[in-house]
């Protein structure tokens, strides 16, 4: 039986596989459907004003995470699997990247899978960590893109060389179980990371636009300070509590956020816009997760809340209907705090999956149903 391999050694370099480059991607030609700076007409709760209030300027002394170098056309992209992986998924992802003009670099553990009971892991901990370190350390790699989520990213957190990641900061893309790495990088390295679609889980699965174009526009630098991130017209968010708030955008998968509470990698919600989403969590479990975070004081410094996709909540109704079952739980926790709440935001396990720049300063405007970037996320 193959074991996950702890404790981890100090990793230097890792083996790499290279695929040939074909074509060139012109990022400037990407369609930005759903991510334009215009403001859509949002859905509102009864009693909420239908007119759009002027959005105030960002706070002058706010401090967000450090922007990372933009992903350039034709750049090398490392495919990593810090959690789980699927058979042939890495090579299919490499073909997807090639077709868009990037040079894929398949990191070894993304092709691996352990024996039971650790068959949920893509390679042992040392190999997955080595891939992550090598992808960041390689100056020829322009982005580190996660193959998929699953389980197991948390196993790496205490062994990651955050100083190495900070010295070689670059776009790091993923969500779901990858939330563990997002939170840890925010805590210990301090650069912007991207809660966005993964290669196998979203892009090979054919999630609809603007899943792909929104991500590429953001990491290529087409969206800068003052740009609005807005859902497509058929996926507009719902204003639960009206208002405008500015702060660091932080969060991700609710279950992972709760799991890391009490550890050195716990979420820092001070002066933050909190984003949460999840999948396969029934209503009672969501209630318990929210209650845990509230009891730990993790909602005390929050300036606003962005509620993403909650999918597969119950088998008795479809995701759009079931999503509404979560809203009373959110209001129970946050209504008395008198902060703006925008729900039904299409980021996470739903379709489409809009990219969010974690650690960046943003303004949440519930009347617009949108987020404004208040700092550069790439340079």
Characterise this structure:
The chain is built from nine helices and 16 strands. A nine-stranded mixed beta sheet has the order 2-9-13-12-11-10-15-16-8. The longest helix is centred in the C-terminal third of the chain and has 16 residues.
List the keywords:
379 residues; 16 strands; 23% helix; alpha/beta; nine-stranded mixed sheet; seven-stranded mixed sheet
Provide a short characterization of the protein structure.
It comes from Achromobacter piechaudii. Residues 39-69 are annotated as: Disordered. With 379 residues, this protein is α/β, with parallel strands linked by helices.
Query: What number is the mean pLDDT?
Result: 88
For the biggest β-sheet, the strand order reads 2-9-13-12-11-10-15-16-8
What oligomeric state best describes the polypeptide chains here? single chain
Number of strands: 16
Give the uncertain stretches in residue-range form.
6-51
Q: Looking at the structure, what is the overall shape? A: globular
* Radius of gyration, in angstroms, nearest whole number: 20 Å
Residue fraction in strands: 15-25%
Question: What is the helix content?
Answer: 10-25%
Task: Characterize the biggest β-sheet.
Answer: 9 strands, mixed
Structural class, please?
Answer: alpha/beta
Tally the helices: what do you get? 9
Q: Output the helix-strand order.
A: EEEHEHEHEHEHHEEEHEHEHEEEE
- Span between termini: 46 Å
